[in-house]
Every structure is written in structure tokens, then in C-alpha cells.
């Protein structure tokens, strides 16, 4: 899967994409990440990418011309590629949205900065808007990394585990069950017997019950949704 990322700060991405699972996915050719510096398409003497808002008020607004030029040069006229603006006004990012985006062979992420982007970018260039939560960050770079990471986990082969992202918290609509590894007793605290029993039917049953209990305790809001979808 290919990700084109449009940003004023490409250097923010490099350490993350050069580490751990995303690094391996890139090396194995499963994920391709192309970073594009919007400033390279600002053709005035000072390479200006932002300006003061019409009508006054504080902050700066990202100018439309470098953003349009950059996106059009890179994506050409392929309108099948979703171009997603990172913005606190976007639709909420969830596990479901991550899965949905992983069905595309190619997506593009546009990182806003400063107070926001000129509205014509929203109206005439982007095809989707996503928020990673109800808080405001200084730019769309961290949200783009969040999306890149969560989507990549759905690409077959990216996770070493053959069950992939299926068992994750939120994938089933419930939080994930507790995990244990060696040693069986640590500082007097034991691993639950059932996990050492070798009885996979019992283990699956225990894990499902734990998921329900955990979700009821920590996220009663999502348990209600799960019950509606699975029981009623
Ligand atoms: N840009 C600034 N804050 C954001 C958020 N919460 N989600 C996506 N993009 C953003």
C-alpha cells in the first residue's frame, strides 16, 4: 500500500517510519511512504506557505496555491486516490475507519498547520477529513502518523502474527483480554491456570469473558454498542 504525505515538516516522520514494524514493512515492500514538502511548491522568493486571514483575527492560514500545486503534481489526475485532510473538524478516526482505508492500494494524507487551511483546499481538493480526537494539536503530522500506523497494521504480512489485527482491542468491538508470558509465577503473582491448561476451547471462552468484563469496567459506552450489534 502506498501513502503520499503532504506536509510542511517531513522531518517529523522520518524517525518513526525508520523504526520497528513500519520500518520492516517498508523494507519488505508492503508499505511505501512518500513524503512531500509543500514548501517545495511555494515559488515566491521567500517560499511562503501561510498568510494572515482575510477578515482579521489571530493566527496564520495555509495558502491554497502551494498545496494545490504540490498535490496536483504528485497525484496527477487520479481521482480514485482518497486525499484526506487531518483536522479536528474531521470525522472521528476509529478502528473501523483504519480497516476501511486499508482496502485502498493508495491514499494521500494532507497535514494542516497553523490556524488551518484556506477553505478552498477543503472545498475543491480534499475528498475526506479525519480527526484523531476531540483536542487540537499544532499540526496534522501526528494524526497522519497515527493513521499511517493503524492502517498499516491491516495490511497482510505487516504484523508478524498470522491472526494479524483481528484480535486487537476494538477490532471485535470489545477491548482485548489480558495477556501473560513467562515466568508462570512472578513475585508471587500467578498466570491464570486456564492459560496453562492447553485446552483451547476453555482458553477462548475465558478470553471472551475477560474481554466482556474489561469492556464493561473500562468502556461501558462501547459495550452497549457491542450488545446492540451482537445480542439484540
Ligand atoms: N490537527 C490538529 N488537531 C487535530 C486532530 N485532533 N485530529 C486531526 N488533525 C488535527
From TrEMBL:
GO terms for biological process: tRNA N1-guanine methylation. Keywords: Cytoplasm, Methyltransferase, S-adenosyl-L-methionine, Transferase, tRNA processing. It is an enzyme of class 2 (transferase). S-adenosyl-L-methionine binds at residues 112, 132-137. It comes from the Bacteria. Its EC number is 2.1.1.228. The keyword Methyltransferase applies. It is found in: Cytoplasm. InterPro entries: Alpha/beta_knot_MTases, tRNA_m1G_MeTrfase_C_sf, tRNA_m1G_MeTrfase_TrmD, tRNA_m1G_MTases_N, tRNA_MeTrfase_TRMD/TRM10. Gene3D superfamilies: 3.40.1280.10, tRNA(m1g37)methyltransferase, domain 2. Its main location: cytoplasm. One of its GO terms (cellular component) is cytosol. The keyword Ribosomal protein does not apply. GO terms for molecular function: tRNA (guanine(37)-N1)-methyltransferase activity. Residues 1-225 form the tRNA methyltransferase TRMD/TRM10-type domain. It catalyses: guanosine(37) in tRNA + S-adenosyl-L-methionine = N(1)-methylguanosine(37) in tRNA + S-adenosyl-L-homocysteine + H(+). Specifically methylates guanosine-37 in various tRNAs. HAMAP family: TrmD (MF_00605). Belongs to the RNA methyltransferase TrmD family. Homodimer. PANTHER family: TRNA (GUANINE-N(1)-)-METHYLTRANSFERASE (PTHR46417). This is tRNA (guanine-N(1)-)-methyltransferase. It comes from Leptolinea tardivitalis. The lineage of its organism: Bacteria, Bacillati, Chloroflexota, Anaerolineae, Anaerolineales. The gene is trmD.
